[in-house]
Specification:
The mean pLDDT is about 90. This protein has three helices and 19 strands. Helix 1 (about 45-50) packs across helix 2 (about 60-65). The chain has helices at about 45-50, 60-65, 160, and strands spanning about 10, 30, 40-45, 70-75, 75, 85, 90-95, 100-105, 110-115, 120-130, 140, 145-150, 170-175, 180-185, 190-195, 200-210, 220, 230, 235-240. A hairpin with an 8-residue loop joins strand 15 and strand 16 (about 200-210). The chain is globular, with a radius of gyration of 19 Å. It is mainly beta. About 30% of the residues are buried.
């Protein structure tokens, strides 16, 4: 897969395979600006408006609609047509009230899944890392670049933040970022795969074989049909704690 750094443009042939731009006329396409998602795991807002949702026929039309503030990402109006949209982001079409969540999908890598108004009020974020900040409070670093602060009463015994583990998932409101719930990555948790050949598949965690590094660790999942699959720990995104149903709605057939 081609690199996307160093220049302000990208050729259509070098774009990620899941971008729906292969059949379009033109040497160059839109390059996502630096933002909350890695360049190879996101799609620019212009391509979503023009090629996925079909609200524009040309890039110029799409740029005009975006600049006028017709689209929200995670509850905020985005006017940058290069804004990177990635997994678990909530997209809202202001004029029509349509709301979508970006989810992993088999073979296509991602899909826009239509969701209700109630579900569009929250988002899931995977905890990539944790750090201690001034005052002894704990800051959670999520997969989409967000930082959520967990305030503790006693820095020497931060019991309020002890339950939040790396690679677990937090549920929070958007755009306020108020924490609602937490789901750990452990046996019995429900997870969705967002990379590799099993992308888009959903299953309960059966076992976790830890390796020297995260990408060498193997997670075994069991889907709704009883079939088992294995994937890298890097590609596992928890969507519900053990014994619970998915916190988010999923494409038909993914879990039920």
């Amino acid at each position: 897969m081609a690199r996307m750094g160093g220049r302000r443009h990208i050729k259509t042939l070098a774009a990620p395979k899941f971008w729906p731009v292969r059949g379009r006329v033109g040497v160059f396409t839109v390059k996502p600006s630096p933002g909350p998602h890695p360049a190879m795991r996101c799609i620019p807002l212009l391509i979503i408006v023009r090629d996925v949702l079909g609200y524009a026929k040309t890039g110029r039309e799409a740029r005009k609609l975006i600049a006028e503030g017709h689209f929200k990402i995670d509850g905020r109006v985005r006017r940058n047509y290069k804004f990177p949209v990635g997994f678990m982001d909530v997209i809202e079409v202001v004029d029509t009230g349509e709301k979508y969540r970006v989810l992993p999908y088999p073979s296509r890598f991602f899909t826009l899944h239509r969701i209700s108004d109630e579900e569009a009020r929250f988002k899931l974020g995977r905890i990539e890392d944790k750090s201690t900040v001034k005052g002894g409070h704990v800051q959670l670093h999520l997969h989409d670049g967000r930082n959520i602060l967990i305030r503790v009463q006693d820095p020497r015994n931060p019991v309020e933040a002890a339950k939040y583990k790396t690679l677990g998932t937090v549920k929070f409101t958007i755009p306020e970022q108020e924490l609602l719930d937490y789901a750990p990555l452990e046996e019995g948790s429900l997870a969705i795969v967002f990379g590799g050949r099993n992308v888009g598949r959903v299953g309960r965690v059966v076992s976790i074989q830890r390796g020297m590094r995260r990408y060498r660790s193997i997670v075994t999942l069991e889907d709704v049909r009883g079939e088992k699959l294995q994937t890298s720990l890097d590609y596992v995104f928890v969507i519900a704690p053990p014994g619970e149903e998915p916190w988010i709605s999923l494409p038909e057939g993914a879990w039920k």
